[in-house]
Write a structure and sequence with these properties.
With 431 residues, the protein is α+β, with helices and mostly antiparallel strands. It folds into 3 domains: 6-76, no CATH class; 83-148 and 214-230; 234-431, no CATH class. It has 19 helices and 11 strands. It has helices spanning 6-22, 29-45, 47-58, 65-71, 73-76, 83-96, 102-105, 149-164, 175-189, 192-205, 237-243, 246-267, 303-318, 321-331, 342-352, 354-357, 365-374, 389-406, 415-422, and strands at 106-109, 115-116, 120-127, 139-145, 212-213, 226-230, 235-236, 269-271, 279-284, 287-292, 298-300. Strand 2 and strand 3 form a beta hairpin. It is globular.
């Protein structure tokens, strides 16, 4: 784990990048060098610092392209634990699961990780035949949590909390409550046993969708710090986006929309971390399939929030301003009612839902420009908007999904997908 100075180093490096952009300095080797340094510093922080770096790497944050390219490494992870620390952590996790030694569980184990992210790293392995209870597969992904990452998050959140408490001075936002919400989610994300339960629940929920694949979990060798699940050979998102033909990219884009919005509007539980490293693509039986990974950051939506959210979405789809306002108020996002600009909120959400409402939609520079304008500092609701805890994750999912889909470079709306989901009866999922 990093020392306490890592956060200041990352902030300093990020500041230098922002200053270069503000001064109009030409992009090039200097930006790439700073980007590489920032990625390394965020990785050393692990925990919250690296997670924020992942988000910046795929959202339309105004950093130089060279810096974005360096930060993109955090999506898959190029940085890992030393070998001895990794093996010790894996062995401890197997003992927690009631298993024996690494050698008795795995016939082969690649000690070089295929991914190293904010909470843990992933290795490819093969189970020994004598311990297999699920003969359909023996090749597995072994996810090992970084030792001490929970305390790293606690330290990161303490610093964020001091800043968030100031939000009350300029808005209706309860910054301390949002930090508590973030802390709860990160604590759960460190629990791989909870992640395994959600992964099983999502797999069951999407079992009838042949465009979406979720790896099966090997529960008998998983624990709070180790997660063993089915290995699925597939292309990384960035490789698929760069090489696939337009029809395949479109099918995967539709699958990503179904995965996100069916979870949200039907199951009332969302996988709230839509960064590209959590998706793979494969061809099976002549069709493109979306492989969904990482169910650590799942937010179950309370019924009293999820039902108005669904009603708000339905109102947007039907163009019903009155129903939209009623649903928005029921969701608890109207902080200061007398000062609240409902027309701006309507316009803001119509813009968010443009990919559903426009038949020939395309994620282009103009859409990005309008997004920045309508959500920017001149937003008339900036000081009168309330932020219910679940809404943080819903907003992150929605805007994050659009940022990811932009990279697939597809054309056409997703109205039929949304209409189909709204026709389904709610079936709340439990992890």
């Amino acid at each position: 784990m990093a020392d306490k100075g890592s956060g200041w180093k990352a902030a300093w490096t990020a500041g230098r990048l922002a200053a270069r952009r503000a001064l109009g300095r030409a992009a090039g080797a200097a930006d790439r060098e700073l980007g590489e340094r920032l990625a390394a510093e965020l990785d050393q922080m692990k925990g919250l610092g690296m997670k924020l770096g992942q988000i910046v790497s795929y959202m339309d944050v105004p950093l130089p392209a060279e810096a974005q390219a360096a930060l993109a490494k955090l999506q898959q992870g190029d940085f890992a634990l030393p070998r001895d620390e990794f093996l010790a952590a894996l062995q401890a996790g197997l003992w927690e699961a009631g298993s024996t030694t690494i050698e008795e569980v795995f016939a082969t184990l690649d000690e070089v990780p295929v991914a190293a992210a904010s909470i843990g790293q992933v290795h490819r392995a093969r189970l020994r035949a004598k311990i297999l209870r699920a003969p359909a597969f023996d090749e597995v992904a072994v996810k090992v949590r970084y030792p001490g990452v929970e305390s790293r998050f606690e330290g990161d959140l303490a610093g964020v909390g001091r800043l968030a408490s100031l939000a009350r001075l300029v808005s209706t936002v309860d910054g301390a409550a949002l930090v508590r919400e973030l802390g709860e989610r990160l604590t759960i994300e460190c629990d791989y046993d909870a992640e395994a339960r959600w992964q099983v629940a999502f797999a069951e929920f999407f079992a009838g969708d042949d465009g979406i694949v979720i790896p099966r979990v090997v529960r008998e060798h998983s624990s709070v710090s180790v997660l063993v699940s089915e290995w699925i050979s597939a292309k990384r998102f960035v490789d698929f986006a760069a090489t696939a033909e337009a029809p395949a990219r479109r099918r995967v884009a539709e699958a990503m929309v179904r995965f996100a919005y069916r979870s949200m509007l039907v199951a009332f539980a969302i996988q709230a971390d839509p960064h590209p490293g959590n998706f793979l693509m494969r061809e099976a039986e002549g069709r493109s399939q979306l492989v969904c990974l990482d169910f650590g950051c799942v937010r179950e939506l309370p019924i009293d929030f999820a039902e108005p959210l669904r009603a708000q979405t339905d109102a947007l789809w039907r163009g019903d301003r009155v129903a939209f306002r009623r649903a928005s108020e029921a969701m608890g996002i109207v902080g200061k009612a007398k000062r609240f600009d409902h027309e701006h909120l309507w316009a803001q959400h119509r813009h968010l839902f443009a990919p559903f409402l426009e038949a020939d939609f395309v994620f282009d520079a103009e859409y990005a420009k309008q997004t920045a304008r309508i959500n920017g500092p001149l937003n008339p609701n900036a000081r009168s908007l309330a932020i219910p805890a679940p809404w943080i994750w819903v907003a992150r999912l929605q805007w994050g999904l659009w940022a990811v889909l932009k990279r697939l470079d597809t054309r056409g709306g997703y109205g039929e997908v949304l209409e189909g989901l709204l026709s389904e009866s709610p079936a709340p999922m439990r992890g």
